[in-house]
Specification:
The complex is a heterodimer of chains A (176) and B (690). With 176 residues, chain A is α+β, with helices and mostly antiparallel strands. Chain A is built from four helices and eleven strands, in the order αβββββαββββββαα. Chain A has one domain: OB fold (Dihydrolipoamide Acetyltransferase, E2P) (Beta Barrel). With 690 residues, chain B is α+β, with helices and mostly antiparallel strands. A five-stranded mixed β-sheet of chain B has the order 6-8-9-11-10. A five-stranded mixed β-sheet of chain B has the order 19-12-13-21-20. In chain B, strands 14-17-18-16-15 form a five-stranded mixed β-sheet. Classes of the chains: A alpha+beta (176), B alpha+beta (690).
């Protein structure tokens, strides 16, 4: 016989998240945003594009822009291994649904997480921009960072990054 | 519901342009009855679909208009200028209110009332005019008595008497009486036999013969009589119908005698009136029928020759077809490399089929430019009236077909150019008479194919552009210096510089100096070009050159290290092959080609591509636009390629020299370069270093 608490747990909203790794850290995105996962095909790079724009790939006849998620998060550019994957996601940009590929070191698993297990992101350790992170999922001893994809890959942010890069190169980094 | 609304709006838009077109023609020939009928029909359809969609305000409004044109059609009133003017105004108003039929804007609502009153006023006026009734040789209505007693074995012939009755009643208004044979007992009853007979009172335009024809197959075996009992519609007279017996299967048959006796009981006056009315009604009725019929035939023709398809479905079709073409290229390549006769044959067939399919799909996305031209007809009329200028607007080559996207993006620039011609080009009436020109100015809008391009020309016979004035203005604006020697063409190109306007005064219509630069930008955006020719006092001609389509591009496939690029063929002047050493150690970045020193751009350097596998021999592509020539250095030229253009996405919008990407036969991606932007890049660089 189930206890009342158990019943309550069962009526709670449980969402699925896809987890992946960048270097040694874990991240997760809402499965509903994930279109598919690909092995890395031939990549055509676009000249003079920002570093984190890794180029374009041919996804069954569609030209899909590719983002190096690691550069985007301020890590070293991705190194291609057998585990390297492209997570194709769908995001809302300027009122349009866009598809794009994100390069990650490895894809782990799909997690079912009840909403109550998602903790607000800690404000102390602001290693990543807070508006990028929806919350933290605790799993054993690790924390998985739940990403707000629409924010991470918004065009405005792409522009902002570009500006920042330009500022960096001209030696006057401005804090935003 | 949303969908229905859209269909309604589309239909309404079509009808508006149809009405406008006919009205413009009617202005010149107000007596053309086929045009009037056309206007009436369109209004009628508009009213119908409006009330169906539920916007009664629109329907009521159109109804009044329709009434006017109904009268015009019936020659009761003449199509006067005030009526045409009011119709134009109403159309403009209708265009607004079909979108939001509740008329939420109080100003619009007021205007709505005002216009309604105006139209009703026109209607009232027309009431006062004398009615001219045209004598139409119409067939008169008659009332027949038909009695039909089928042969008892009629069923065994495969005839269904009820169908005959149906056919008969289709001829006009009717009253049917049916009877069962009397004294029929259930014992004697044979279900295979017919015991029913009929008497029918039929009001029809027909003579006796067509009615008799209904019974042509049974006349030998059955008893049939068809008698005309009255010239006129008896069934419309209550005095007559009240005397008719109730429909009773066991009742007495309706004989000629009884019908005649009914008629004799109707007062003479009523009968005479009926006969007279009959004559007047004839005219209306027959015409109504005629209109309906033409509508019907038109409708059925249209449904055969064209179907409405949502344009995004067509886009999707084009996408799928271009994917098929790409996949097929892969198949062809594979079959060439693997000698297998069966595979080769299949690949050849697939290639043939997909090419045909691509051509058909491509053709489907093209639409005639006449739709666009028609819109300007109206605009020209309005603006020239507003400016008090007499202008003849001529269009030519409206059947030229272009990609829908191109036509859509042409609307604004063309509008601007036509306004310019009207405002600045065409002189006032007095001025024209003084200079010995015909009083009416002419603006000609034409389009034609030439090579892989479509050209659109706007030509006026106005005062032309004063090159010297432009020069002066450009000098005061510091666009050029006094000593600059410019060709006429270069001077005319100055009008496309942002903020440059020659107009002395800013008018409603043009002269703010924003415009020509936007026009040029819009045209460049659809990979077109624009040029100006003008002779003082004789007129101006502006020519737009446009690609047939935006989705397919003829290009040259080139390689720089491992990356493939496509350079549009139209921008390529020539190709050369040189040794790479000739380029190195050159600080000016100029290359000697055909005794000419031309600035060059090394794509390896320009695109920061690693210095690996540098070939000893490189290829030079000479790019040219109307004012500049530059050479572009690439590793090698692969060959010509028909590229299906795909967007690279918003994330690369800062890399504007890439206008798109295309997928090659082997599945890899080639980037399509925008020659204009590449040339601009080089020029900016040159200026910086200078």
């Amino acid at each position: 016989m189930r206890s009342i608490e158990e019943e309550q747990e069962h009526t709670e909203v449980v969402e699925s998240y896809l987890s992946f790794k960048l270097d040694d850290e874990f991240f997760a995105v809402d499965v509903k945003k994930v279109f598919e996962i690909l092995e890395v095909p031939a990549i055509t790079s676009i000249p003079l594009a920002p570093d984190y724009m890794a180029g374009v790939i041919n996804l069954r006849g569609k030209v899909l822009p590719l983002i190096d998620t690691k550069v985007k998060f301020g890590l070293d550019p991705i190194e291609f291994t057998v585990d390297t994957c492209i997570v194709v996601i769908e995001i809302e940009v300027e009122g349009e649904t866009l598809q794009m590929g994100t390069l990650v070191d490895s894809v782990l698993e799909v997690l079912d997480v009840p909403n109550s297990n998602i903790q607000p992101s800690p404000s102390i350790e602001a290693k990543y921009r807070l508006d990028f992170i929806l919350g933290m999922i605790r799993r054993d001893d690790d924390f998985i960072m739940l990403l707000n994809l629409d924010e991470v890959f918004s065009i405005q942010d792409v522009m902002y990054m570009q500006e920042a890069n330009e500022n960096l190169s001209s030696g006057e980094l401005t804090e935003k | 519901m949303e969908n229905l609304h859209n269909i309604y709006l589309e239909e309404a838009e079509d009808l508006f342009s149809k009405i406008e077109e006919s009205l413009l023609l009617l202005e010149k020939a107000p007596d053309d009855s086929s045009l009037i009928a056309e206007v009436f029909r369109s209004m009628h359809t508009l009213k119908g679909s409006s009330s169906m969609y539920g916007s009664n305000k629109v329907a009521d409004f159109v109804h009044n208009l329709e009434t006017i044109y109904d009268k015009v059609r019936g020659r009761e009133i003449d199509l006067s200028q005030p009526i045409i003017e009011a119709t134009f105004k109403s159309l403009d108003h209708l265009k607004k209110i079909v979108e939001s039929p509740d008329i939420p804007d109080p100003i619009d609502a007021k205007y709505h009332e005002k216009l309604t009153a105006e139209i009703l006023g026109l209607l009232d006026e027309s009431e006062g005019t004398d009615k001219i009734t045209t004598q139409v040789q119409g067939t008169k209505r008659k009332t027949f008595l038909i009695s039909f007693t089928p042969d008892k074995d009629i069923f065994t012939n495969g005839t269904k008497p009820i169908l005959l009755i149906d056919e008969l009643t289709d001829l006009g208004t009717s009253q049917v009486f049916s009877y069962m044979e009397k004294g029929l007992s259930s014992k004697k009853y044979d279900p295979k036999k017919c015991y029913t007979s009929w008497d029918i009172l039929l009001v029809a335009d027909e003579d006796e013969n067509p009615i008799k024809d209904v019974f042509i197959f049974v006349e030998e075996t059955s008893k049939i009589s068809v008698t005309k009992v009255f010239d006129g519609n008896l069934l419309s007279l209550p005095e007559f119908t009240s005397q008719l017996p109730p429909v009773d299967l066991n009742g007495n048959r309706l004989t000629l005698k009884t019908v005649k006796s009914f008629i004799s009981k109707i007062p003479k006056k009523v009968l005479e009136m009926q006969e007279e009315e009959n004559e007047i009604m004839e005219i209306d009725v027959t015409e109504e029928v005629a209109v309906e019929e033409t509508q019907k035939t038109q409708g059925s023709e249209e449904s055969i020759t064209s179907i409405r398809v949502a344009s995004d479905k067509l886009d999707e079709l084009m996408n799928q077809v271009s994917e098929l073409v790409t996949t097929q290229a892969g198949l062809s390549m594979y079959s060439e490399n693997n000698f297998d006769p069966v595979l080769n044959a299949i690949a050849d067939n697939v290639e043939k089929l997909s090419r045909q399919l691509r051509d058909i799909a491509f053709e489907m996305t093209l639409i005639q430019i006449s739709n666009l031209f028609r819109r300007f007809n109206r605009v020209t009329r309005d603006i020239s009236n507003q400016l008090g200028k007499a202008v003849k607007f001529v269009t030519e080559g409206g059947e030229t077909e272009l990609d829908k996207k191109i036509i859509d993006s042409l609307s604004d620039p063309l509008m601007h150019l036509i306004r310019n011609s009207l405002d600045h080009g065409i002189e006032s009436r007095e001025e024209r008479i003084k200079t010995g020109k015909p009083e009416k100015g002419t603006i000609k809008l034409s389009s034609y194919y030439s090579g892989a391009k479509v050209y659109i020309q706007i030509e006026d016979d106005g005062r032309g552009i004063d090159a010297e004035k432009i020069r002066e203005k450009a000098i005061t604006n510091r666009l050029i210096s006094k000593d600059d020697k410019l060709s006429e063409k270069e001077i005319f190109d100055l009008i496309f510089v942002p903020g440059f306007s020659l107009a002395k005064s800013v008018t409603d219509i043009s002269g703010r100096g924003v415009g020509m630069d936007v026009v040029k930008k819009n045209i460049l955006d659809i990979r077109g070009d624009i040029s100006v020719e003008s002779k003082m006092g004789q007129g101006t001609k502006i020519t737009l050159g446009l690609p047939l389509t935006l989705s397919v591009i003829d290009g040259l496939l080139v390689k720089v290290q491992s990356t493939s690029f496509i350079v549009p063929l139209v921008d390529i002047k020539k190709c050369f092959e040189i040794k790479r050493e000739e380029l190195s150690n050159d600080f000016n970045e100029l290359i000697k080609l055909e005794d000419d020193k031309i600035p060059y751009l090394d794509l390896r350097k320009e695109f920061l591509i690693k210095d690996e596998d540098v070939p000893a021999k490189v290829s030079i592509i000479l790019l040219e636009n109307e004012s500049n020539r530059i050479a572009v250095c690439v590793d090698s030229i692969v060959g010509e390629y028909q590229a299906v253009l795909k967007p690279v996405g918003k994330y690369y919008r800062n890399q504007e020299f890439v206008s798109g990407a295309t997928i090659l036969g082997d599945g890899s991606i080639a980037l399509v370069l925008d020659a204009y932007k590449i040339i601009a890049r080089k020029i900016v660089k040159q200026k910086k270093s200078a």
